[in-house]
Structure prediction request, 369 residues.
Amino acid sequence: MAGSFASGQQIKMNSSQRILLWIVSVLAIAAALYFLSPLFDSLAPADKHLVDADDDDDGDDEKQNHQFALSVELTEAAQKMASIESQTLMESFYTPEIRAMAVVIPTRELQLAHSRCSEAKMNLRMAKVNEQGMSKELSRLKTLQQATGSVASKEVDFAQTNLSIAQAEAELKQQLVENCHAEVRQQWPQPVADWVINGGEQFELLMSREQSILKVTLPPKQSLNPNVDTVRWQQPHQQNDVGEAQRLAAAISVDPVLSGETWFFLNKSSSLQEGAKLHVWVPTEQGAFSAVLIPYQSVVWYAGQPWAYLRMDEQRFQRISLLNGHDSVEGIYLQQGFHPGDAVVTSGAQTLLSEEFKWQIHDEDDDDD
Prediction:
């Protein structure tokens, strides 16, 4: 009987242990599911993001093929605080241009050359007057000697020597004038050389700085179109200070530093500071193409390229690349990305760029936590 009682107790204890083990296992599984649930939740937004991205791809055709980056939304109140303004784009016609460098020629160089040649011509004039005087004196003495015989031969010989000296001096002065002219013509092309040598109204306009000569150096491997007579110049960092200049002639020598094709242009439109460096926009062809003009005040830089913001609606803006645009004196001409009738942000674009990338700062803060 004692053995039977012991066996019954053993069976009851084994059953109790199995029940306890089952309860512990259930609790362990529940705890594991509880702690692993955040991991599954974190995976859900990623899948949703992929779905949203696919939806955005499907909607590209509905956005007039605008090449969008990321969009940003800003309330009307926030826009007012940030002074965000926009303007409607219109169709423009643009002639392709290249940007060249130019320098305003100092008038001192022209003045010094003109003074040297003027002094040489004055000395020549005086030498010729002296020569004429000596020639008249010799003629007078010869006449008296033949008529009355009152003039000695040595006086005639002396007068002849003086005339020879005067003639030699006049020839020397003539050579100096020719040398000065040749020096000017080796430095300056026509018609600039004639202005320097002869002076006149055009030279006085240059000396009074009412007009100026621009020395334009084209980029390497670029040539001036023979049909181009006018270029546009722009003061660096002064986008509104622009003007036009008319072609004069090709320079005698190329720029030793830039080594590009060099031309002289006459600026009549505005008074420019001597020695000033300018940006010059040179047409490359005669034809024009249709585009929209993005003003420079709309441009923001990110990742090494220019961008501008398109106003999608009252509160939504889209950043669009201007990398394929054409620089000009007025702004950037674009044939894709923006279209006539679109509204481009002209004030506050930098604020929109900062607002667009606030999420990066938030992500970094989350990583720190």
Q: What stands out?
A: The radius of gyration is 44 Å.
